[in-house]
Amino acid sequence: SNYKIKIRNVNDSSVSDFSSKFTIEPAPQVNITSPTSSTSLEGGQRYNIRWNDNFSDNVKLELYKGNSFQRTISSSTASDGSYRWTVPASLSSSSNYKIKIRNVNDSSVSDFSSKFTIEPAPQVNITSPTSSTSLEGGQRYNIRWNDNFSDNVKLELYKGNSFQRTISSSTASDGSYRWKVPASLSSSSNYKIKIRNVNDSSVSDFSSKFTIEPAQ
After folding, report:
1. Number of domains in the chain
2. Nearest Cα to 5, choosing from 17, 23, 26, 24?
3. Do 1 and 22 contact (CB within 8 A), yes or no?
4. In this structure, are residues 94 and 65 in contact, taking their beta carbons and an 8 Å threshold?
5. Domain range for residue 85?
6. Residue 2 contacts by C-beta under 8 Å, 6 or more apart in sequence?
7. How far apart are CA 193 and CA 176, in angstroms?
8. Residue 60: which residues within 8 A CB-CB, separation 6 or more?
């Protein structure tokens, strides 16, 4: 706040004047510090978007894939350097995502993050057995599922909500497991199979209820 301007006659330096003191502020700037090019996120994950700025106006945050606008993350949030974002689970897999930040009152004051990756949230879904499946003790049967991860899976047998036994404590997530139905199981139409990621128990699914009959 201590700047002044001096004016004088070019031919007579004694003819001059100073302005009053005045203030010069740096031009408003904003710079995203995260995500970076090494960032990899999953759908459903909570993540702190971070930036530096030199103004007090709120900021707007937007998601892009390449140069294509995808959605608004926040239409207006405090310029406090951080925003807690829940990555939408519906986003498709890509390494071409970017975040744009801008001053809500001056769209020319903006920045893009580096490109980063978003992967779908890990999911698993049992496709068989189904509600029409009827098995016999001693029978061999292919339990089948779809997933989108490389971790092994655990398979368990339930009757209603009651755990019965582990079918496999860890098997490859290749979509199929050859199961020999135990001959000792009692007859019921209330059996279910549970599958889960061995490294993340929240990633799981139950089959439909199905029937097991004693061996003939």
Report:
1. 2
2. 17
3. yes
4. yes
5. 32-119
6. 21
7. 13
8. 72, 74, 75, 76, 77, 101, 102, 103, 104
Q: Are 87 and 41 in contact (CB under 8 A)?
A: yes
Element (H, E) at 19: none
Burial class (CB in 10 A: 0-12, 13-18, 19+), 61: buried
How large is the average pLDDT for residues 29-33? 97
CATH number at residue 114: 2.60.40.1930
Provide the 3-class DSSP secondary structure of residue 42: strand
- pLDDT at site 199: 94
Q: Residue 74's beta-bridge partner residues?
A: 61
What φ, ψ does residue 19 adopt, rounded to 5°? -75, 170
Q: What is the pTM of this model?
A: 0.67
58 DSSP assignment? -
The residue behind tokens 């496709």 is 127
H/E element holding 173? none
